[in-house]
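Slide 14.
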Amino acid sequence: MKKILLVLLFILIFFSTASADMGGTKLTYYSPKEGVFDSDTVTLKWRILSHDTVKNITLVVTGIQDGSGATYNKKITFDGDDGKKKTYTLTDLPQKASFAWNLLIETTEGTGSFGFAGVLATFSTK
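Slide 15: predicted structure.
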């Protein structure tokens, strides 16, 4: 069952666009787009160009640990322009786990997210 969920997650990522667009707001860069990391620390980076005033940007990371099925959920909100060009390091990630991450953005013109079905990119830990 878990393998089916992971396969579906990767299919969603495959069909998402790398240069996301939300009206007057564009995601111009993000990293990692995918990968397997040896450590329990992963650094996420992104750059957003917005012609609208940004109220906040929320980083959402979800994961599931292989074998145990334990879940990981983390949300971090950055106010205003602070979140438009950001490097954020996640620490103490569970090993042998698969993760998906996304950015939710609220501007004066509305709210939205990048990627497809709430997933911008995926990564995993060994």
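Speaker note: Confidence is low (pLDDT under 50) at residues 12-20.
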